[in-house]
Design brief:
With about 475 residues, the chain is of the alpha/beta class. It has helices at about 1-10, 100-115, 180-195, 235-245, 300-315, 330-335, 350-360, 375-385, 405-410, 425-435, and strands at about 20-30, 35-40, 40-45, 55-60, 65-75, 125-130, 140-150, 155-160, 165-170, 210-215, 220-230, 250-255, 270-275, 280-285, 285-290, 320-325, 340-345, 370, 390-395, 415-420, 440-445, 455-464. The strands form four sheets. The protein has an eight-stranded mixed beta sheet, sandwiched between helices. Strands 9-8-7-10-11-12-13 form a seven-stranded mixed beta sheet. Strand 1 (about 20-30) and strand 2 form a beta hairpin.
Length: about 475
Amino acid sequence: MQYKKRNQANEQNLLSLGKRFPLTIKRLGINGEGIGYFKHKVVFVEGALPGEVVVAEVVEDNGRYATAKIHHIRTRSPHRIEKKDEYDVGGIELEHLEYGEQLKFKSDVVSQALEKFKPQGYQKFKLLPTIGMEHPFEYRNKAQFQVRKTFDGKVIAGLYKRGTHELVDLPTFTTQRPLTMKVIRKICKFFEDLEIPIYDERNNSGIIKTIVVRESFATGEVQVVFITNSEKLPKKRLLLEKINNNLPEVTSILQNINKGKTSLIWGESTKLLSGNEYITEKLGNVEFKLSARAFFQLNPYQTQKMYEEIKKALDLGKNEKLVDAYCGVGTIGLFVANDTNEVRGMDITPEAIEDAKLNAELNEQKNFSYTVGKAEDLIPEWQQSGFVFDALVVDPPRTGLDAKLIKTILKAKPRKFVYVSCNPSTLARDLKELTQAYYVEYIQSIDMFPQTARCEAVVKLLRK
């Protein structure tokens, strides 16, 4: 009965769609949206900033909270600036906020996450100011744009409008590298001129679904991948001729086949169409060969800063052994290689391990071994065979550490431990378990993605 009454009360308190009311914005949420309170109800307002008084217009009410959009701003934040991009897509959700304030927000996101999960001793954690960029634009070394054809025959490439499946054409995008954008626009024109069939999602017909362009900051090489609905690529020879004649920067052209309707961008099969299978990137003195599907951080400028922070936090000795979990193409391990006796890395993606082995060979590093598999399975196996390691670095996906791996870490208890996080919420959740055996010496947040709400962090942990 009480549950029924509570539901009825919630229904009576619902804000009607389109209702407008003044709202003072108190803070930013973890996704960069403004947060205010209307009669004790939390209201999320996209694009609103702390200290602003807006007239909010209700988009949806879920009972416990509501979402709204700005109808107009009555009192404007002194930190609001004009956006360079006017597209309604992801990846630029904080572009209207002064960059210095973005950095403060990202430190606060880490603090909010710790406050929510409350790992042991979190009130005393040393949170260092977020490391930012001097020029927080034109930093993305990779664009992964959907390709479609408009009713009037124009080929467009871009990202989906937020909350929809409507493609927004992006002739410019200030977080992307200018060369990357130039290559995409020219290739779209080549598709148009050659009348190459573009994928039609509604009818599951056509060929070109997605174009992926990655640029090396070190060499200027560009890699292009066409993700297609079929193994056939009509007018392939003419297309390759146009690219080779007009875009000399493109040194690697590949095709990935991903048939049918699917939420996944990539298919299993990738083949080389022209040029080299790899492009070469460099961080410090370390070179990396990148294949089409190899994971590499999207912001090489900040990646180098982050890896220097990892190196400092690990503080490895020449006789120490390191385990690099979630090693990818071997970037972290290779960056710290000269400081240590041996590095063992693992990743569940076979292609990443192949690239990691190639990169170790390229950099003439012989103290490396890479294995396909999960850290929670391999670490106990290695220990049983007599391998003793001194240090561990983990760089998990946004979902954080696997529960089984946390148990493995707590059992192995390496003396030195660095956690590299791309999601403060899952970091704080994992620290709740890890602080059973470790102290958090400090958390260094790093802005890898200016103009977005995303934040990375390097955590130095010491065994109790």
